[in-house]
Amino acid sequence: MAFSLENGQVSVENKAGLVRPATEAHAEEAIQALKTGKVIAVPTDTLYGFACDACSSEAVNRIYEIKGRKHTSPLAICVGDVSDINRFAVTDHLPHGLLDSLLPGPVTVVLSRGESSNLEKSLNPGLESIGVRVPDSNFVRVIARGLESALALTSANLTGQPSSVSVKDFENLWERCACVYDGGVLPSGRAGSTVVDLTRLGKFKILRPGSAKEETIAILEKHSLVEEPAAG
């Protein structure tokens, strides 16, 4: 079925044509879209996300526009491998092997950006820290490696709306993306990643429980990190 809608809406046929399977056969297409400043939708190991080149201020602005999100709300980044993290954030204060124990997985580690970070200053201006993900999701990691940069990554939904565990959950936003990559229904239950602040030597603070809080705390304590008390 194909029909045109008024008010600038995309036809049903064209809208469905934006969706591709999230397989390595489509990875090169995704990489090229990212290199030209486009926003794509991808599955991770927790939720569906909008992704773009974290070093393209134009693409980052487009993500904020799609989500209806204030620029004061920071974006996380995603890289292909744990070994890439030190290009964008400070890691030398962390115990040996800690990041490899946490990642890849459903965890966002918050680290200091540092003076040598390759990130554009326009990404999360005014913030000295950055959330970093290495999802346990092969498709996202392949395109991050191919981009040879970091992806800016945020949940594929309008700000304030439920997170997406299938492409149908954000069908109203497909037309705002260059492509939507379908990895099926994700099993996270909309919890999202566990967010942990690792900016302080020997300390950690859970900023969002997410889907892997207990496992994350166990790994951090095994590496002799101490949980900071909650504020107040």
From TrEMBL:
Belongs to the SUA5 family. Pfam families: Sua5_yciO_yrdC (PF01300). PANTHER family: SUA5, THREONYLCARBAMOYL-AMP SYNTHASE. It comes from Citrus sinensis. InterPro entries: DHBP_synth_RibB-like_a/b_dom, Sua5-like_dom, TC-AMP_synthase_SUA5. This is Threonylcarbamoyl-AMP synthase. Its EC number is 2.7.7.87. It is a peripheral membrane protein. SUPFAM superfamilies: YrdC/RibB.
